[in-house]
Write a structure and sequence with these properties.
- The chain is of the alpha+beta class.
- α2 crosses α4, α10 packs across α15 and α11 runs antiparallel to α13.
- The longest helix is centred in the last third of the chain and has 38 residues.
- It is globular, with a radius of gyration of 22 Å.
- The chain starts with a strand and ends with a helix.
- One of its GO terms (molecular function) is kinase activity.
Length: 495
């Protein structure tokens, strides 16, 4: 019998990644592909599912499949940014670009409307989360109000992973975790759609069948095999949102485990056996039937550092080296990283980035370190809202280089474990497929911890004062930020 291999594909905000993995977790091949994200209006963030999701999927699969070299590909797992809203017709053809997750803030009026309609406390109790820009329900209401013809033609509610699953297998299915982010349309305790509320939020819309991320929900059809080069009949698991696949990839599966994902945005997933809903966080199903998760997410992180790198015409390695020579506190700078509003724990789409303390003596090294520290303060703000974590595991591209993770540990006062593989959600997709098909060998030990980042107590003490002022800076400037956000929208409308 040929040795088994597993395939994992993840579609991210600014790039897509794929891996081919042996049954015991060794990476046999990896591939990546950058893509564009569309910002058609302030507060709007979109992807074209054909040119971004599907074309990336095809390119990655065509690069990875030949690396199997005689191994039998035993399963395919997929994940993607989420929760997103992609309305399609009955054949799965997109009717408009996909509306992305919490960074897209267009549905603020609908959030308020639905909160009033169903009651904030009852939404939190039943669905696990207060309504925010992360929720799909308000975006569906927005679609019905602002693009009624698109809504009238909508027969499927797809997300990134379920779009790929439908293209590959023909199945209209969504994993429980993704569904639990369709607030207020999912009942967390019942592990099912809240049919009564869903009928009011999205009248007439057929909802997908539900499955767990590890469940095999279909097999690659002949047509999909011809288009992709994948074997016909290949088992495909339900998939999920990228952050939960990434948490799985690094062993964050047990109560108390917490993942901190360094990426274009910063994301947190804490596993619990059953959650106590928190108004400043998202409560969801976990990736596995016996778990819930508390989640948090910053609207920007790597997006800010990339913006600054472009602004000063630098490269990451050089900026990290320069910032490493700058002392704690960036010589008296303090940055609010709310460059695209903020998600948890303040849920303020009109928050804006602020840099306080500037003088003519500050240069790009101080600015870059201040950006890393500002994001670190946002991490601490979220972790304090989540409560104590028994284990903090760091993943993502930002774990490379050492400075950023050290700053975060110094600010939070917490150790961060870094596993052998930080390739991300695609690796978790392969593991989920391996668990679902039974092909994974020793899935609990695929990705051992190889490094621990420990806080410097002297730095933590210095950062405590900065963190207090970080919290005060938002409160002191929020009215100005909201005024400026309104001015930005007005300027865009005149453009």
């Amino acid at each position: 019998m040929a040795e088994a291999a597993l395939l994992g594909i993840d579609i991210g905000t600014s790039s897509s990644k794929g891996v081919l993995v042996s049954a015991d977790g060794r990476i046999l091949a990896r591939a990546s592909r950058p893509h564009e994200t569309s910002y058609p209006h302030p507060g709007w963030v979109e992807h074209d599912p054909e040119s971004v999701w599907w074309e990336d999927f095809l390119a990655l699969v065509r690069e990875l499949v030949p690396a199997a070299e005689g191994r039998e590909i035993a399963g395919l797992g997929v994940s993607g940014i989420g929760p997103v809203l992609l309305p399609t017709d009955g054949d799965g053809k997109p009717l408009r670009p996909a509306i992305l997750y919490g960074v897209d803030t267009r549905a603020t009026a609908e959030i308020a409307e639905l909160t009033e309609e169903f009651g904030g406390d009852e939404i939190l109790r039943r669905g696990g989360s207060a309504l925010s820009s992360q929720a799909v329900g308000p975006k569906l209401r927005w679609l019905a109000k602002h693009e009624p013809e698109v809504y009238r033609r909508t027969e499927m509610l797809l997300m990134c992973s379920s779009y790929l699953v439908h293209r590959l297998t023909g199945r209209y299915v969504l994993d429980h975790h993704s569904a639990s982010q369709c607030d207020p349309m999912y009942d967390l305790a019942a592990r099912d759609w809240a049919a009564d509320w869903a009928a009011r939020v999205a009248p007439g819309l057929p909802l997908p069948e539900l499955a767990w991320p590890t469940e095999v929900v279909g097999r690659v059809t002949a047509q999909a095999a011809s288009e992709t080069g994948l074997p016909e009949g290949l088992p495909v698991t339900a998939g999920t949102v990228d952050a939960w696949a990434e948490a799985t990839s690094v062993g964050v599966r047990r109560p108390g485990d917490t993942m901190l994902m360094y990426g274009t945005t910063m994301f947190f997933v804490q596993v619990q056996s059953r959650i106590e809903p928190h108004p400043a966080l998202w409560g969801t199903c976990g990736a596995f039937p016996d778990t819930d998760t508390l989640a948090a997410g910053m609207a920007t992180s790597g997006a800010v550092t990339d913006w600054l790198r472009t602004l000063v015409d630098g490269d990451f390695a050089g900026l990290v080296a320069e910032a490493s020579a700058v002392p704690v506190g960036s010589r008296g700078l303090l940055l609010l990283p709310y460059f695209a509003g903020e998600r948890t724990p303040i849920f303020d789409p009109d928050a804006r980035g602020i840099l306080a303390g500037l003088t003519t003596t500050h240069g790009r090294a101080e600015l870059y370190r201040a950006a890393l520290e500002g994001i670190g303060f946002g991490v601490r703000h979220n972790l304090e809202a989540m409560g104590s974590a028994s284990r903090l595991v760091a993943v993502g591209g930002g774990t490379q280089g050492g400075l950023w993770t050290q700053i975060v540990s110094d600010i939070t006062g917490q150790e961060q474990q870094i596993p052998a593989e930080t390739v991300g959600a695609a690796y978790g997709d392969a593991l989920l497929a391996g668990i679902g098909t039974g092909a994974a060998v020793d899935p609990d030990n695929w990705n051992p911890i190889t490094r621990t980042v420990r806080p410097n107590p002297a730095h933590t003490e210095r950062y405590d004062a900065y963190f207090r002022h970080y919290r005060d800076l938002y409160t002191a400037t929020v009215r100005i930020a909201h005024f400026l956000a309104g001015e930005q929208r007005a300027a865009d409308e005149l453009a």
